[in-house]
Amino acid sequence: MQVDESANRGEQFEAAEREAAKQRLLAQAEADRVPVDDTTRAVPDRRWRRDQR
């Protein structure tokens, strides 16, 4: 009975560690995230326009 209890506690500890790691990764990803507006803004290419005249 004692072995089952400690194995269960170990599994719970590992699950808690995985969840904490997941939360850290999500927080880091959110901190590194680039807003959509910054990635979709069109920048005119004047060289292309010059060739089109």
From TrEMBL:
Ranges of Basic and acidic residues composition bias in the record:
1-22, 30-53
Report residue spans for region: Disordered: 1-53
Q: What is the lineage of its organism?
A: Bacteria, Bacillati, Actinomycetota, Actinomycetes, Micromonosporales
Q: Which organism is it from?
A: Micromonospora noduli
Entry protein name: Uncharacterized protein
